[in-house]
Structure formats: C-alpha cells, structure tokens
Write a structure and sequence with these properties.
The protein is α+β, with helices and mostly antiparallel strands and about 425 residues long. It folds into two domains: about 180 residues, no CATH class; about 140 residues, Histidine kinase-like ATPase, C-terminal domain (Heat Shock Protein 90), CATH 3.30.565. Helix content is about 60%, strand content about 10%. The chain has eleven helices and six strands. The chain starts with a strand and ends in a 20-residue tail after the last strand. InterPro entries: HATPase_C_sf (IPR036890), HATPase_dom (IPR003594), Sensor_HK_TwoCompSys (IPR050482), Sig_transdc_His_kin_sub3_dim/P (IPR011712).
C-alpha cells in the first residue's frame, strides 16, 4: 500500500521575550502595537517627555559654559555642542528606534562625541557626567554588548581621568552611573511594554484566524457529505423520470433530497453557533443511506460499543469525510468500514482517488488537524490490488475534555 501521512504542520511561535546581547533592539514591534497608529504616537510622546525632563539638567551646564572670561570661540563651541547634544537626544527618542541599524550607530557615535567634547575643551572630567544621555541612547538603539561597552568605557575614562589629575569627585561618578542606570531602566521598561502589546495583538489575530479555520473546516465537513448525497439522489430522481416515468419513486427521492437540505441547513446553523455534535453512530447510519443511494454496497459495523467514548466524535468526522470521498471520487462498487478501539479504517475498491487529490483539498487536512488534537494520525493511499484506504489511528486514549456528548453505549440507528 502506498500511503501518505498527514499531520498538522508545526507553526513557529514568535517569542517577543527572546533576548541576546548581540541582537539589535526590535523597536519595530511598536509599529504593530495599534492598527490606528495611536499607540505608536503615544509611546513616542512618552519617550520624548522622559528625555525632555532629563535634558533639563543640561541647562545649568550651558549657562556655566557661557559665563566667565572664556574665549568667545570656546563658548560658541560649547553652546553648539550642548544644543546639538540635546537635539540629538530628542531625535534618538523620537525616531531613533525606527531607523536602520547603520543610522542608529551613527547617531549614537555623534551623541558620544558631543557629550565628551565639553570635557575635552574645558579639561574637566566632571563634565563627562553629561554623557548619561548618550549612554541611555546607546542602550535604546544598539545591541547590549556595544551599549554596555560604551557605558563602561565612559565611566572608566572619567574615574581614570579624575584619579590621574587628583580631582576625584565621587558625586559626579555616582551621578553618571545612577542617572545612566535610571534612564536605561526606563527605556528597558518601555521596550518590554511594546513587546507585550505586540504579543497581545498577535494572540488576538491568531485567535481570530483559528476560529475562522474552525468554521471553514466544520462547514466543509457538513456540506461535503450532505451535498454529495443530495446530488446522487437528485440524479437518481431525474433518471427515474427520464427512463421509466416512475413518478412515485422519483417523488420519494426528491423528498429525501428535501429532508437532506433541511438537515444541512440545520447543521450549518448549529455549526455557526458551535452547538453541532457529530456522533459516530449517526455518521455510520448516514453513510449507509448515502452509499446505498449511490449504488455502492456498504459493509458497515452495526454498533460502536468498542470505541472509546472520547474517540467517537473524531472518528465520526473520519467516516463522514472518507465516505463522501468514496461517493464523489472513487467510482467504487464496494465500501467497507472497520472499527477498532483505537482506529477506524475505510476501504473501497474503486479505481479513482478516494482522497480527492491529497494536498489540494481541505477534507483530509482537516481530519489531520482533528486527529492531531487527540495525538492521532490519519493515513491514506492506494491499495496494491486496486482501491483506496483511509485509516485514522489514536495510540492512546484522548483527554477527558473530548468525551463530551458521547454515551456509554451508542447503537447505530
């Protein structure tokens, strides 16, 4: 037997919490935080407000730089450096997270240069304390291994410079370390909130997609079987009227089509409302009617007592889909259904493909999903001597949650 095994493909899950010291901060997640974009703007304003409050501490430095008897050129350089430093910090907070990696690196490099320039011009290591904002921007925009290196280098430079000149200022060092740590913590919290919001949005989209797939699968299962039987019976009524003019027999077939259409409509309504329950016994009885109407000899079980109660629902779907494919695609004259406590097998002797072109349709892929929910598998393929076989197997009993609606003994109607 040539068989193909159908399983539900594993879907890789996006994990926003993944972390690596060499990974660039993925602030792009903020772009998906809100379909309207309001969340993105709000979070930008928050980052900008935090940066603006922190930058207020630069004002005294700039006033000090402009005062005294310094050379006007030096004053101009210091003021330009201060203005450029503040503007760069604002730019980093507003649009830095959404810029390409190269632009991020250049922006951080410019901020570091502007931060250390006053200390070099004035020969004052205490002015390196103002580099806290450059360190915070580095932590926001660069991988951790680079931003941590920049922070450690600036702190070490300030401590070493003070030590060499004999003007060690523990307050300045503590300010550099403390303020830098606080700003980095704020950005880290904002980063985490953004990822949590993006993850929540992704969960919502996955839930909607999963419900859509469930409804589509159930509608396929309901309509495929009912419409196939209705088509066969309508064709039989037409042939009766065309060949023999047997009006009573044709009326009986049309009445059966009417009953099936009502049942299909009821099933669709119940499916949409999530109240529809498939039972193995009912599906076997329906399969007997459909196969007989199609002129196919049906060899079906008379009871389902040996089947675990938790498997009767999923095995009912297997019988429904397999028998529907036998009627529609196989051209068979015989169809056999065999039940065991952990498997169901449907075999036909047709020359067509009972699987309805595996890989293209939704039927067998839907069965694979249902079987996967109870740790089972579905196999299908041609038989060496002709015909087709579908086998669903569950190696272990399903969970108790799948046992709803099944009776301890369920005879076939």
């Amino acid at each position: 037997m040539t068989s193909g095994r159908s399983r539900v493909a594993a879907v890789p899950l996006w994990e926003p919490g993944d972390f690596s010291a060499s990974r660039w901060p993925q602030w792009e997640s903020w772009k998906d935080a809100s379909p309207t974009g309001r969340g993105v703007t709000r979070d930008r304003v928050v980052r900008l407000a935090v940066t603006g409050v922190a930058l207020a501490g630069l004002a005294p430095r700039m006033v000090e730089s402009a005062s005294g008897d310094r050379d006007p050129v030096v004053v101009a350089v210091l003021l330009a450096a201060g203005v450029g430093y503040g503007a760069g910090c604002v730019l980093a907070a507003w649009s830095g997270p959404f810029r390409p990696h190269r632009e991020r690196a250049l922006l951080v490099a410019a901020l570091v240069v502007l931060a250390v320039l006053p200390a070099l011009v004035l020969g004052s290591p205490s002015h390196l304390t103002d580099s806290t904002f450059a360190i915070a921007a580095a932590f926001m925009l660069l991988p951790l291994r680079y931003s941590a290196a920049i922070g450690a280098a600036l702190v070490s430079w300030q401590v070493g410079w003070m030590w060499v000149t004999g003007r060690f200022d523990p307050v300045a060092v503590a300010t550099l370390v403390g303020v830098g740590t606080i700003l980095c913590t704020v950005f880290a919290l904002l980063f985490t909130i953004g990822h949590l919001r993006a993850a929540r949005e992704q969960v919502r989209r996955m839930a909607v997609s999963g419900e859509r797939e469930r409804v589509a699968r159930d509608l396929h299962d309901v309509l495929g079987h009912s419409l196939s039987t209705m088509t066969v019976k309508a064709g039989l009524a037409r042939r009766l009227l065309e060949s023999a003019g047997d009006v009573p027999a044709a009326v009986d077939e049309i009445r059966a089509v009417e009953d099936l259409s009502r049942q299909a409509l009821s099933d669709i309504r119940a499916t949409v409302s999530d109240y529809r329950t498939v039972t193995l016994a009912t599906e076997i009885a329906g399969a007997r009617v459909a196969l007989t109407a199609s002129g196919i000899r049906a060899d079906l079980p008379v009871a389902v007592d040996d089947i675990d109660a938790g498997l009767r629902v999923v095995f009912g779907y297997v019988v429904r889909e397999a028998v529907t494919n036998v009627i529609r695609h196989s051209g068979a004259t015989n169809c056999t259904v065999r039940l065991d406590h952990d498997r169901v097998t449907i075999t036909d002797d047709g020359g067509g493909d009972g699987a309805a072109e595996p890989g293209r349709g939704n039927g067998l892929s839907g069965l694979a999903e249902r079987l996967a929910a109870v740790s089972g598998t579905v196999e299908h393929g041609r038989l060496p001597g002709g015909g087709f076989r579908v086998t669903a197997h569950v190696p272990s009993p399903p969970t108790a949650g799948l046992r709803r609606g099944a009776a301890d003994s369920e005879p076939v109607p």
